[in-house]
Design goal:
By secondary structure, this protein is mainly β. Helices cover 7% and strands 55% of the residues. The chain is elongated.
Length: 227
């Protein structure tokens, strides 16, 4: 992603908010936000069932209020997708750039404020790894056999694409008032691309669920040209 893209998106959205009437729908509010929390992901093969992989995700972003109940959020997030099975593990590490529309009550309100999220999240793979090996049999004896040897996998045997795009749905709540607020969110994402597109035999898509806690700091900012 181009480094100027988040800034361009924010100014485009803000200009759109004033273009219809010639004046702002409300005082635009910009917040710097940080979130992190547990992340459960899975890779969905058409002909192979695997267990989810549990990890941790986190990131930072900007939230721009566009009206009484509308906001635009741009984030950069580090997360992992993967799958596990007996004698097998695949880990895919990604840098994600969620572009989310926030719908909820006025952000300047006090107390508990519930909101919904919807958008897309492009992914760029940072690394891939894993292992496979013989499946050990557990026997009820006093003898503990040595762990079977593990062999590093070649990621190209499972996925061929390092770029993905997912749709994201979620909900959350802000708590507090003033310049510092706290938040809790749940998000579900589903990959839209087949990341094994070079193989005609099967399709491989990502799916994930996250619970994120964080904080939001209001940034002094106003649209250039406002009175």
């Amino acid at each position: 992603m181009h480094p100027l893209l988040p800034r361009i998106l924010l100014h485009t959205a803000a200009l759109g908010a004033v273009s219809l009437t010639g004046r702002p729908l409300m005082s635009q509010e910009l917040s710097l936000e940080a979130r992190a929390g547990p992340h459960k992901s899975e890779l969905r093969w058409e002909y192979w069932n695997t267990l989810p992989r549990r990890s941790f995700s986190g990131g930072v972003g900007l939230d721009l209020s566009l009206g009484n109940s509308l906001g635009l959020r741009v984030e950069a997030q580090r997360l992992s997708h993967g799958a596990t099975a007996r004698g097998f593990r695949l880990n895919l590490d990604y840098l994600a750039f969620p572009l989310l529309l926030r719908v909820g009550p006025p952000s300047r309100g006090s107390g508990l404020q519930v909101y919904g999220l919807a958008g897309v999240s492009p992914y760029r793979e940072l690394g891939c790894g894993g292992f496979r090996g013989p499946v050990s049999m557990e026997l009820v004896t006093d003898y503990a056999p040595p762990e079977p040897p593990r062999e590093a996998i070649d990621c190209l045997d499972y996925r061929t694409d390092g770029i993905d795009v997912a749709r994201v749905l979620g909900a959350g709540a802000y708590l507090g008032q003033g310049d510092l607020r706290y938040s809790i969110e749940v998000r579900a994402s589903r990959g839209l691309r087949n990341i094994a597109s070079e193989y005609s035999c099967c399709r491989l898509r990502t799916r994930a669920f996250s619970v994120l806690g964080g904080a939001s700091w209001r940034v002094p900012w106003r649209l250039r040209g406002r009175p």
